[in-house]
Amino acid sequence: MKKIKGIRALIFDYGGTLDTRGRHWSHILWEGFVAAGVPIDKETFLDAYVQAERTLARTPIIAPEDNFHALLLKKADIETKAVCDSGRWEVNEPVRRKAAECIAAYGYGYAQQETERSRHVLEQLQPHFGMVLVSNFYGNIHTILKDFKLDVFQAVIESAVVGVRKPDPAIYRLGVQATGVRAEETVVVGDSLSKDMLPAKAVGCHTVWLKGEGWGAEPEDGSCADVTIADLEELPRLLL
User: Fold this and answer.
1) What pLDDT sits at residue 196?
2) Given pLDDT bands bounded at 50, 70 and 90, which one contains residue 74?
3) C-alpha closest to that of 7 among 129, 176, 155
């Protein structure tokens, strides 16, 4: 793999990049529904997933002090209620709540394993580069990073705080400013072509695409990324 040279700073995405090895969270939460024994098809689940994401985007349900388990429990609560409201799953409230708890536990365990792997990579890179996080998140990303021992970034640009969201390139301009170096001296690492690679390129950064199991609506042409990797553990060989 050809090294990227002249780099002084790294900008990381969070969700899907540091916590799932490139897998979109819809896939993991679906596995949680299966593990919880919720008898629905994936299309029904995806409808509930989208409904929950829209609810969380417009309503301040996630609190700044919520760790990732608390966040997932709130998501699973909305999703399981949506499934019940659709008429596809008729159960009493204790059964629904127990399923939501099982889904949250599954997702949290998954994220614990993946963030531990990511932390080892970040620890290798931290002595050599400035590191900034740029994330579409709910206002509690600092709590999440502390929860998973990933609070290694010199700055965090969170959409709910700065008032701009990916794929708007402006959020990556803020990320570059936070690094204190030029865009052409910066590499952006993310799992989404549309939300990470394209806006990062638009502001002049180098790009590394973590290709995994993405959201179905994502473009598949990875030519906008300078380098494509399948695992974050490839980064040290690429950058050092």
Assistant:
1) 97
2) very high
3) 129
By the 8 A CB rule, do 24 and 213 touch?
Answer: yes
- Residues 111-126 have pLDDT tens digits of 999 999 999 999 999 9
Q: Residue 59, CB half-sphere, CA atoms under 13 Å: how many?
A: 10
Among 162, 36, 170, 156, smallest CA distance to 97 is for 36
How large a percentage of the chain has pLDDT more than 70?
98
pTM of the model: 0.95
Q: Are 23 and 144 in contact (CB under 8 A)?
A: no
Complete DSSP assignment for 102-158 = HHHHHHHHHHHHHHHHHHHHHHHHTTTSEEEEEE---S-HHHHHHHTT----SEEEE
Amino acid (one-letter) located at 49: Y
Contact 131, 123 (CB under 8 A): no
